Structures are given as structure tokens and as C-alpha cells.
Prior knowledge:
Order of helices and strands: HHHHEEEHEEEEEHEEHEHEHEHEEHEE
Shape: elongated
Strand content: 15-25%
Number of helices: 11
Structural class: alpha/beta
Distance between the termini: 63 Å
CATH superfamily of the largest domain: Response regulator
Radius of gyration: 25 Å
Strand order of the largest sheet: 4-3-8-9-10-16
Number of domains: 3
Largest sheet: 6 strands, parallel
CATH topology of the largest domain: Rossmann fold
Amino acid sequence: xxxxxYTLANSISTATNLVAMxxxxxxxxxxxxxxxxxxxxxxxVKLYGDQQDVPSSRILARRYGVSRHTxxxxxxxxxxxxxxxxxxxxxPYVRCRSAAVPQMHRLYPAVALYVPRPAKLISxxxxxxxxxSFLSVASAELRVCVERVTPHTSLSPISGGVLLGSPESRxxxxxxxxGVSDGLLTDLVAGDAIVMxxxxxxxxxxxxxxxxxxxxxxxxxVEYLAGQGHRTIAFLAVGWLTDRERWAGGLDPDGRRFEQxxxxxxxxxxxNHSRDYHIEYVGDVAGxxxxxxAVVDRLLRLKPRxxxxxxxxxxxxxxxxxxxxxxxxxxxxxxxxxxxxxxGSEFAAITRFQSDPVQIGRxxxxxxxxxxxxxxxxxxxxxxxxxxxxxxxxxxxxx
Length: 399
């Protein structure tokens, strides 16, 4: 397990690796070597305490594969910017923290980020974009270690933070980018750690949450469809056997909040609000569309037949439309389909809510830094609204 308390010897390589793994980069207009190295060093030395030594130019030259002259130019550039100070000719530079930079008011100025085991930590998928954005901001001022959630994950609350399995791995905050039990969250908050769920909302008091405002999405979706003349609207959500122990029916809490908001909106607008039209089904881990074909058959047997369906997952929406085509039905003539989507050109034709993973990650990191730096910002639920993108899968009800 990566320790929360980094040594000076590996701080620069750790921060550099984080930037290389998670920050978006461009090869256009490649800068001079010393500018590029100065940019990487700037991120790394922000993790240092005031007056702490920077590794020597000889060590850095070997690490970056450049001359000591190039390293000295990079260090000199950071000194001009007021980030480093020289102790004299031939002596190492030291971190020179400006009085204007907020000091961390936590015993352990480090955070552990727990990500889903199968997550791809790259910026061209949704969760990867969230994590890239989060890390690019958070790692500028905090030490960050990235961990995978496993059945053997061990976290223990300690005074002022969390112990990650060994005395050397102490952090002041823990961020979860995947499902975690309410019991563990409650224990960690009780230990005075900063605890955050990323891209999901927790009902545990004292937990910071940064996520899409799915309740607003549900209300807006129902109002939009009602404006197109739809009065019988279905809700389709997929659950998984692996999640059924944690969540009722295998549907995550955000999905449940979406469904409840949707029911309330339909009732408020005088639409058909029977729960018969709300179908939660178990997905096929092999990826086949067998469950979705059964769902479509169930929809077609309902009286009156729904004229629109809101799919909580964009993959559900795609498979439902495939099942409709197999039965000789068309979208939106026979059934309008609306979904929630993160990104990806494959969803361009679907009417959907488009969320911004970069904004979610950045907002989460900025709030976390405020809690570490000022110790006056309290736990908060930051709900970020997506935007409705009209595609070709929703149309007015044909008379």
C-alpha cells in the first residue's frame, strides 16, 4: 500500500507520475526542456514543507535524463517565481512557501483516493475524467495516494485522520469514487477524518458529497416529456447481483433518488404515476441484451402502453432500442427514449442529460482543499446540474 507520509526522496517522482497518469497533456508546441521540467517540479515541490531541501541538480538530472545545466535553469525559473530559494552557490534549493499560501490545518495533509477495481484511470472515459480532474487540482497542494477498493481494504479511524493499514500510512482524508458501506463512512467520520464520496451522494451525516443532481434531472426529464404530450412514462434501471447486498434491489442510492423524484414529478403534473411502469432488472454480467429484451416485452404488455421511457443508464437505453428494432418497432414513433449520459460520441443521437466529469472532479478537489487549508468549511453536498441535449430519440406523442 502506498504510504500517506511520502519521503522527500520520492515526492517528486510520485507527483510526476500522478501528473503523467492523470493530467491531460498536449504535444503541440513542445516547450524547451527546462520549461517542461520546471512545470513538473512546480507541482512536486508544492507538496514540500517550508524550508525543506529540494533534491540536488545531480539527482534531478539523472532522474529526468537531462544535463545539470538544464536542471539549474528549471530551478532558477522556480526561484524567480518565488517558489524556491537558494541557500547559496553549490548548495541545494529549498521550498520557500509564501505567507499568502494557506497552511494546512490538518495533522495529516494527505488524502487517500479509493477507485473502483476495474476503473480505467484515463481521461477519455467518464470516471477517468472525474479522477483526472480531481487529481490535477488536489495533488497541487496535498499528498495523494491512489488505492483500489478490494475485499481486503483495511481502514481504521485514528485521531485526526485514517490509518491505511500501517503506522506509516496516515491521511487526513479519504475520498471514495466507488460504492462503500454506510457503516464504514460513519466510523471514519466519527474519527474526525474528512470523508468524501465522489460522483455519488451519501446519506451519512458529516460526509462530503460531490455528484450530479440526479433529482433535478428526473424532474426536468418528466417535465420535458410531458411537454411533448407523454402521459405514461416508464422508468428502467439496471441493478447487479454483486450490489444487491449493499443496495436495495441492487440499485444505487442515486438511482433510487432519481426514481423517487420522477414519481413525485409525475404525480405533481397529473401523469400516470403507477409503479407498474418502474422496472428494475438484473443486468447480465456477460453483456448480452437478454434482460433488456425481457424488459421491452414487459413494457409492451402494459395497459396503457407507455409512450416514453427514461433509462437511468445509457447502456440500458442502447439495448432497449436494439430490442425495439428486433420487434419491428421504431424510436421515437413507438417509444421515445431519454437517458443519462456522461460522454461519448456513441450517445450523440440519444436525447440525454450530459454531465461534466471535469467540473465534478475539480469542484470536489477545491472543496477538499478548503476543508484541509482553512478548517472552517464544513461538510457539504455539492450537486452539479447537467444539461439536457436533444437527440432524435424523443418525439411528440402521435395522435
